[in-house]
């Protein structure tokens, strides 16, 4: 191939990739595949260059680059905002950041296992899956990132109280995913019965991809949905009402929705790089909490850059308000979520000992005069 044609071919290829990414319903399907036992195909966009470049002349750490994965979703606000504002790059110095975005938890785990990414923002379910399927050899959870952002929203004409949910059709993103497990646990707490696999019983649990849930609601195919943001707020914009915020079911109204994970191989080889990323994460979370409006705008700008579509204010504002960024991985809630899946018959009792390694996170928190966090007995010994 003649060298003079290569730049044009590369440009055309990039344009085709961007066009393909724009056609994907990334945002509203983002959490649909974060499930126990999910087998969804991956859909990712590599090298999402939306962050400042490494500073020339800056100190380089032990790795030339660090490959970071995340979802273009508000529950991954730490990654979205930290990359845009440059918090991660500042801590990494001359070590370059390579980004990859995903809309499926299993795809991100596959990328981590294959060495395509080193560190990732991801939900608790695929983290647990990845750890248990590798017999504890693939990853560690090294930090929390977000809590909340999950709601039961319903058609107010058909459902006015929690007891009215009985006999109705309620959507979840996917069989066995985090929200599906939460709904099944809540149904069980009400004394109602549902077959977890078929979804049939006192409540009809309809597994529906988040990207089509709003259309299913408008068509009357479902009476409500137990879904993450921003799908919940999208349904509200279509006339649904919030009947229950899942955070009210948890102690202190906190439960993990997003963790930070790292390849054990990368953690062992480059602890200085991992520490720098965690320092950037902690500083990002503090900045988000102190500058909520600007952080919200940053996150939406990133979503637009990654998906070619920003969220409208009537979806963005309530969705952002219901998500809390934090450093604590809320390890106890992750264990309870796994227990719920076991109780529903969707997961064999997982051995989670050692899934957390909070050593570097607690080092960073101590340096900044912040309280350290706990692994709920599931930390690396």
What do you see in this structure?
The protein is of the alpha/beta class and 381 residues long. It is 41% helix and 17% strand. It is built from 15 helices and twelve strands. The chain has helices at residues 6-23, 26-29, 77-85, 87-92, 105-114, 124-133, 178-189, 213-219, 231-237, 264-269, 271-290, 292-307, 313-321, 331-343, 359-367; strands at residues 44-46, 65-70, 96-102, 119-122, 139-148, 150-154, 169-172, 204-207, 224-228, 241-245, 256-263, 323-325. The strands form two sheets. The protein has a seven-stranded mixed beta sheet with strand order 1-3-2-4-11-5-12, with helices on both faces. Helix 7 (178-189) links the parallel strand 7 and strand 8. It is globular and about 65 Å long. The N and C termini lie far apart (55 Å). The relative contact order is 0.18.
List keywords for this structure.
381 residues, 41% helix, 7-stranded mixed β-sheet, alpha/beta, globular, 5-stranded mixed β-sheet, disordered N terminus
Summarize the structure.
This protein has 381 residues and is of the alpha/beta class.
List the helices and strands and how they pair.
Blueprint (H helix, E strand, L loop, with lengths): L5 H18 L2 H4 L14 E3 L18 E6 L6 H9 L1 H6 L3 E7 L2 H10 L4 E4 L1 H10 L5 E10 L1 E5 L14 E4 L5 H12 L14 E4 L5 H7 L4 E5 L2 H7 L3 E5 L10 E8 H6 L1 H20 L1 H16 L5 H9 L1 E3 L5 H13 L15 H9 L14
Parallel strand pairs: 2-3, 2-4, 7-8, 7-9
Antiparallel strand pairs: 1-3, 4-11, 5-11, 5-12, 6-9, 6-10
Helix pairs in contact: 3-11, 3-12, 5-6, 7-14, 9-13, 11-12, 11-15
């Amino acid at each position: 191939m003649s060298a003079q044609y290569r730049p044009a071919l590369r440009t055309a290829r990039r344009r085709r990739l961007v066009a393909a990414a724009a056609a994907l319903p990334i945002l509203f399907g983002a959490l649909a595949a974060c499930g126990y036992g999910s087998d969804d195909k991956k859909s990712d966009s590599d090298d999402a260059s939306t962050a400042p470049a490494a500073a020339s002349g800056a100190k380089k750490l032990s790795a030339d680059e660090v490959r970071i994965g995340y979802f273009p979703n508000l529950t991954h606000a730490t990654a979205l905002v930290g990359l845009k504002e440059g918090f991660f790059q500042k801590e990494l110095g001359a070590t370059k950041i390579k980004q990859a975005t995903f809309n499926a938890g299993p795809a991100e785990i596959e990328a981590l296992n294959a060495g395509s990414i080193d560190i990732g923002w991801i939900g608790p379910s695929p983290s647990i899956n990845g750890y248990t399927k590798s017999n504890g050899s693939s990853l560690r959870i090294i930090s929390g990132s977000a809590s909340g952002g999950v709601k039961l929203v319903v058609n107010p004409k058909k459902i006015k109280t929690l007891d009215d949910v009985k006999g109705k059709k309620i959507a979840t993103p996917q069989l066995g995913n985090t929200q599906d497990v939460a709904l099944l646990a809540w149904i069980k707490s009400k004394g109602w019965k549902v077959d977890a696999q078929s979804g049939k019983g006192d409540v009809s649990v309809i597994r529906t991809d988040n990207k089509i849930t709003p259309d299913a609601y408008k068509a009357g195919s479902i009476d409500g949905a137990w879904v993450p943001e921003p799908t919940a707020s999208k349904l509200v914009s279509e006339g649904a009402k919030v009947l229950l915020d899942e955070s009210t079911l948890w102690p202190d109204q906190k439960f993990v929705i997003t963790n930070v994970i790292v390849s054990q191989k990368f953690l062992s080889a480059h602890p200085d790089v991992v520490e720098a990323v965690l320092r950037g994460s902690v500083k990002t979370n503090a900045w988000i909490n102190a500058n909520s409006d600007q952080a919200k705008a940053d996150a939406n700008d990133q979503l637009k850059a990654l998906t070619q579509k920003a969220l409208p204010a009537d979806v963005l504002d309530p969705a952002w308000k219901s998500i809390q960024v934090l450093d604590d991985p809320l390890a106890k809630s992750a264990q309870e979520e796994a227990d719920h899946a076991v109780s529903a018959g969707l997961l064999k009792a997982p051995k989670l000992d050692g899934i957390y390694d909070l050593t570097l996170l607690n080092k960073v928190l101590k340096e900044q005069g912040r309280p350290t966090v706990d692994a709920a007995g599931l930390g690396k010994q």
